[in-house]
Each structure stands twice: as C-alpha cells, then as structure tokens.
Amino acid sequence: MSLFQGLSFLTTVNDLKALPQEGLEVAFAGRSNAGKSSAINTLANHTRLAFVSKTPGRTQHINYFDFGNTRRLVDLPGYGYAAVPEAVRKHWQGLLGKYLETRPNLIGLVLIMDSRRPLTDLDRVMLDFFLPTGKPVHCVLTKSDKLNNQEKVLALRQVKDEFKNNPQITVQLFSSSKKQGVADVEKVVGSWFDDVMQQMAESDPMDGE
C-alpha cells in the first residue's frame, strides 16, 4: 500500500502546547482556497479525509493525520483570507510561524500554491519562517488542470527560477480533479521520512549492539 493510502485522522489542536510529543511530521501549508484539503484527499484517495470548506479560512486548527510508524501529516490552517477577523488572523500567523520555526518533529514542508497565482506575499512569509531551519520544502502548484500546456510550463518555470539557487526547494504541478502529480508528491514525502529515519538509525548508539 502506498504511503498516503493508509492515512487516517489522528487529532486536532489549537495550541502548540497540545501538539503530540512523539513522531516525525511533514506539514502541509497553503493560502486559503489554494486547494490544500483537496490535495490531501486526493493523495489519500479519500474524498472526505481533510475538511474542504466552502468558506475559505474556516478551518482554524492544526489537524494531525497518521501514516503509521509514528509518521504524521500535519494539516496547517489556511492563511490569508480577507474576511477572517484580525484577531483570528494574528493568532494563526503566530501559531503557524512558531510551529514552522521551532517544531523539532517537523522534517519538511509541503507548500500548496494555486498554479494560477503562486508565490503570494503570504506564501513568502511562510517560507521566511521555515527556510532558516534548513529543512526541505516541496512546492505543489495545484489546479494545474485549469491551465493550458503553455501556462503550465510558465507557472512551473516561474517558481523554479525563483528558487534555482536553493536546493532546499523542489517544485511540481498538481491537479486534484485529474489526479495528476500524486506519485511525485508521494516520492518526495516518502524520501523525507526515509532519509530522517536512516539518519536516526545511524546515530543510535544502541544500533548494532
């Protein structure tokens, strides 16, 4: 069974103090209405695993999903929706920023961006929080089915060119409705878990005894 096919809901939290203590985490972040929940559902081949709100910005909590073997997918609140009250928006930004900057369990970030409007100011803020950690980022450009072939090439090139000197960041196109790009996301995320688990095994002083 593929990595995302076994994904199941674990818990939801609204305070960093309530985060699970154990496990390795890959976080999914994205601007409200960028297609993050749809992408998670498509990857898991489950239509209602992640909540898809008809009101962008409604999902305010950090939702945890379990891959098994203490590997987790962390669905972060969508950001940037104008109708969200200022106090709520500030809470989210503080929560997201602190999580991305300081969470030791976090091994990589999947940044969901609408392929028609990638790299908004708020996307860059998320990257500013996370890139100093040195951990990998995979940019997933969703809704690519809404672009023609030339537009797909241009969108992918735009983001790749922006980060061409940063090997920390990789980029791909994705379409939830067409189920395109699923294998690519799975390969990247799976490699992050494999690499970290291998590093942990190699550094374990009990290993080999």
Question: What is the count of DSSP helices, taking H or I runs of 4+ residues?
Answer: 5
Which series of helices and strands comes N to C? Answer: EEHEEHEHEHEH
**Terminal Cα span:** 32 Å
Structure classification = alpha/beta
Largest sheet: 7 strands, mixed
Average pLDDT, to the nearest integer?
89
Sheet with the most strands: spatial strand order: 1-3-4-2-5-6-7
In percent, how helical is the residue content?
25-40%
Shape: globular
Total beta-strand segments: 7
In short:
By secondary structure, the chain is α/β, with parallel strands linked by helices.
Structure write-up:
By secondary structure, this protein is α/β, with parallel strands linked by helices. Helix content is 34%, strand content 22%. The chain has five helices and seven strands. It has a seven-stranded mixed beta sheet with strand order 1-3-4-2-5-6-7, sandwiched between helices.
